[in-house]
Design a protein that fits this description.
alpha/beta, seven-stranded mixed β-sheet, three-stranded antiparallel β-sheet, 15 strands, globular, binds pyridoxal-5'-phosphate
Length: about 375
């Protein structure tokens, strides 16, 4: 039976331990190798490893230069790790409706959500289904929106022959345990823009990235005789450790094996469910090549359980009551987090179930497809 972790990961981990350098600082060799290999695989100029997919989303949005109060459009149907990074940099999430067959943001939903304060859109390739990128990009371009792709659930997914993660100004992947490849926790940010990259790296490293860019350290002139460490800006510690990078690099080397197993399980699910009355198999639009994370099946109303509509979550209900974000940014009147704002998402949620297609054995998980979430 194919296991998730094995000799390849152990060999890399031994090397890290032997080096006696476990953190993700300037000497992070596995971190650099992972970033270079992943960037090359996607044909993007820059890749930056961070501590989680959620952190990767936040670093990408910050890297894009978004400011507090800017509106960021994102799909109503997605894990909350999509909207929380918008809130945490002081921006305002505006939820867009989705295609109820896939629960992926629709071009019509995006168009309706645009306001003069909208600066960016987050497109989520949910369940490893490709979003309809041509149509979405054309709406985004018409309104001057920056585009971020959340590919946490979407490794090696294609839209009209082009890989998810290569369309947006930025893209983010997750290395959390359930994903196509994993280091337990971790994330990757991608972009082709040097400034976006530099801002994302600095933000993920407590504002301290001078060693990576050959920059002159600011703020190291004594202030009335007092020295400081010369951090460029505000930031978090979202660094990826060498232990995580070592495991992720080994996993990347095995991604085709994992993909193959996921495809076999998706085919087995389709064989089982094809003739069941009231059940619709995954909808694949023309030009889409999914690589399912969970397999999206639509079941009769009452049996569905898509439990990841974002705006019913407590954080948005609190914002709805207080009319401001948790960072105190006031919400415009037209931003509402109430039932009815995304009717297609609400209808689709009543029918959608994700069936786990984890391709390999991990602790406590079987290789048998099963209903469930993350
Ligand atoms: C679509 C999506 N975005 C972001 C994330 C966040 O990734 P992480 O759990 O690595 O923070 C997830 C994780 O489940 C996800 O499914």
């Amino acid at each position: 039976m194919q296991q998730c972790f094995g000799e390849e990961e152990l060999a890399n981990l031994r090397e890290v331990i032997a080096s006696q350098e476990l953190w993700g600082g300037p000497s992070a060799t596995f971190g650099t190798r992972l970033e270079e290999t992943f960037a090359a695989r996607l044909g993007r100029r820059y890749c930056h490893g961070v501590s989680a997919g959620t952190a990767a989303n936040e670093c990408a949005l910050f890297g894009l230069g978004l400011q507090p109060g800017d509106e960021v459009i994102c799909p109503a149907a997605a894990p909350i790790f999509v909207a929380l990074p918008i809130v945490s940099i002081g921006c305002v999430p505006v939820f867009a409706d989705v295609d109820p067959r896939t629960m992926v943001i629709s071009p019509e939903g995006l168009e309706k959500a645009v306001t003069p304060r909208a600066k960016a859109v987050m497109i989520v390739h949910l369940y490893g289904q490709p979003a309809p990128m041509d149509e979405l990009l054309s709406v985004a371009r018409r309104h001057g929106l920056l585009v971020h792709e959340d590919c946490a659930q979407a490794y090696d997914v294609y839209w009209r022959g082009r890989r998810a993660g290569t369309f947006g100004d930025t893209a983010a992947f997750s290395l959390q345990q359930s994903k196509h490849i994993t280091s337990g926790e971790g994330g990757l940010v991608l972009t082709d823009d040097a400034e976006v990259y530099q801002r994302a790296v600095t933000f993920s490293n407590s504002g301290l990235a001078w060693y990576r860019f050959g920059l002159t350290r600011p703020g190291n002139e004594p202030l009335d005789g007092l020295r400081c460490r010369g951090h460029f800006s505000f930031g978090h510690n979202y660094r990826l450790s060498e232990l995580q990078a070592a495991v992720a690099l080994a996993q990347l080397g095995k991604i085709e094996v994992f993909n193959r197993r996921r495809r076999e399980l998706a085919a087995a699910i389709e064989d089982e469910l094809r003739d069941v009355p009231g059940v619709d198999l995954a909808y694949v639009p023309d030009g889409g090549e999914p690589n399912y994370w969970n397999y999206p099946v639509r079941v009769p109303v009452g049996m569905g359980n898509y439990g990841e509509l974002q705006y019913p979550e407590v954080v948005f209900q609190q914002m709805q009551r207080e009319r401001r974000t948790s960072l105190g940014v006031p919400l415009p009147d037209y931003v509402q987090y109430v039932p009815g704002i995304c009717p297609q998402a609400e209808a689709g949620a009543r029918r959608m179930r994700g069936i786990i297609t984890t391709g390999v054995q991990t602790a406590g998980r079987s290789v048998t497809p099963s209903f469930g979430g993350r």
